[in-house]
Design brief:
- This protein is mainly β.
- The protein contains no helices and 11 strands.
- The strands form 2 sheets. Strands 2, 4, 5, 6, 9, 10 and 11 form a 7-stranded mixed sheet that branches. Strands 1-3-8-7 form a 4-stranded antiparallel sheet, with no helix packed on it.
- A hairpin with a 6-residue loop joins strand 7 and strand 8.
- It starts with a strand and ends with a strand.
């Protein structure tokens, strides 16, 4: 599985951005795709995840209501992260990741993902 993240940029506080993660290679109904982020000097943290069937969604508690993960219903090979009401503390490099074997126990953990894309920088100015 190969992942390509895009859509990052510079935005003012209160603005919105939509990140895209293009997924290629062999996928299964058990595949899960997640978004993580890493701010300078901090650990990489979970943001959101979706199962390939789109039947299950997961969010970091602190981001619920502002971030929305979805999968392209037409192409089905792109996962989006809609980010609204952005704050300066959302500034980070955002990564998408995938794994063939979805697990509720590890879906919010970095160890739950075998495949990682390159990051895309999101900068929110105050």
């Amino acid at each position: 599985v190969q992942l390509q993240a895009s859509g990052g940029g510079l935005v003012q506080a209160g603005g919105s951005l939509r990140l895209s993660c293009a997924v290629s290679g062999r996928t299964f109904s058990s595949t899960a795709v997640g978004w993580f982020r890493q701010a300078p000097g901090k650990e990489r943290e979970f943001v959101a995840a979706i199962t390939w069937s789109s039947s299950m969604l997961y969010y970091a508690d602190s981001l619920k209501g502002r971030f929305t993960i979805s999968r392209d219903n037409a192409a089905k090979n792109t996962v989006y992260l809609q980010m609204d009401s952005l704050k300066p503390e959302d500034t980070a490099v955002y990564y998408c990741a995938a794994d063939d074997a979805f697990s509720r126990q590890t879906v919010t953990s970095r160890r739950g993902y075998a495949y990682w894309g390159q990051g895309t920088q999101v900068t929110v100015s105050s």
